[in-house]
Amino acid sequence: MKKAQLLALSVGLAACEPKAPPADLVLRTGRIYTLDDARTWAEALAIDDGRIVFVGPNAGVDAFVGPETRFVDLEGKMVLPGFHDSHVHPVSGGVELGQCNLNGLSTREGLFAAIEECAARTPDEEWLVGGGWDLPLFPGASPHRSELDRLSPDQPAYLSSADGHSTWVNSRALDIGGIDATTPDPPNGRIERDPKTGEPTGTLRESASALVSKHLPPLGPEDYAEGLKRALRMANGFGITSLIEASARDRTLEAYAALARSGELTARVRVSLTVDESKDESQVDELVEMRARYQAEGIRADAAKIFADGVIESGTAALLEPYVDFGHRGELNFKQEVLNRLVARLDKEGFQIHVHAIGDRAIRASLDAFEKARAANGPRDSRHHISHIELFHPDDIPRFRSLGVVANFQPLWAFADTYITDLTEPQLGPERSRWLYPIKSLKDSGAVLAAGSDWSVSSMNPLDAVQVAVTRRDLRAPEGPSWIPEERVDLDTILAAYSRGGAYVQHQEALTGSLEVGKRADVIVLEKNLFEVPETEFHRVKVLLTLLDGNEVFRDASFPPNRQSN
Ligand SMILES: [Zn+2]
What we know:
- The protein is an alpha/beta fold.
- A hairpin with a 4-residue loop joins strand 11 (about 155-160) and strand 12.
- Helix 8 packs across helix 9 and helix 11 (about 335-350) crosses helix 12 (about 360-375).
- Residues about 1-15 have low confidence and may be disordered.
């Protein structure tokens, strides 16, 4: 049906209906992209008791205006369903914001200056702790302890990389961790070493970081709760109303429970419980118990997170064929038989399984495990999903749809930054590199797409990722060729991944994900209509207002307050 016909139909209906009960809040004169099945545009929206009670033309909303109704004149601004971030680390990221925060520093000089400043700011702290440094700032993604010894001579220093898979430590920290030339690499971890002497260089990969991190001063419950509050403020400011916590154990779960108790949990949350790589399926009983304990506190902790492999840049992602320079293929964190048994057991217990898989072998191993679980337990509405999904073997693309597995991309990573040009493509060669982040191919295969930031690994702003998904170019260098342009997607596709797709993977599409009568009022107002601004400007468009269940959880200072109707 054409838009004009739709409007006429709605007006006709409104005219012959009795006056509706007055709504709490009315938004009108907007450009409302509802993201319903037909992708209807509307002008006005009425909200009562946290629910959407009307979506349609301006004329139709008048019936919902009573003396107590507040209203917002949108003056043509865009309205969307609240964004769903389907892979994010709000608690650890929020804690990091309060520590030595090294995110977004693009030069070594800038990074060193920031570290020096942190050391000067907290001279009395036992440790210098922080994170967010970018791997490509150092050859081989391996910073040296000697540099950190200079920047932080007195305090032991522990600085996580932005992707969380490597840690840079100084000599004092290595001493405290008891790491020297004779220390063996722990399972699923690597101590980077001087090739001649075997001495540790100061970069620890994956589980090797724990040799030092177990000596860090413990944080208290209030540190985690404060971190989560900081992160939620940021999320609401970017228009995020639903999120999937990508990896949680007790301390993180406690933070969600604390905010749920105090009424400060300003997003719909599903928590993925971290599966321990050092154990097999026998750990599932413990996860079942944990799920029940936190569900009693009002937290949906019914997902399990499996780290199938590491990352390509440091050679810890599992590939089907060897890395060009490293020579090896990387390791799966679980042997295939263990992964199969673990996935089958989790699936049987009704967990939604959320996998971290980056290399083509890890993606295949995960799909194989899902296939086996389905054969063993029978199909159910599980909506398992795989995050990151960086490198595909093309044969595995159609399997997402056929197995009902959601493709959970982090689209912000899909352009030729130095992670790609210096650390990834040289290790894969051109033929395999074609299949990095094939978002359009997944969409065309009929798979459900979801999207997330993986913050604090990278920017939490969904509009940064929306822009890269559409352009496959650097946000800051919008000119020039797209990277693998055939994998660009259109604006509707990526907005749907951030709304409908996210709601689907959270099993909450009856509640949210689109703006339709009867759904909860998770609604955002953007200063401009994304369909009318150049695609290279999406990341500059500000969110002005964020409503969760009809309640305001963010309002930009420039956006005028609601008015009363008389
Ligand atoms: Zn993550």
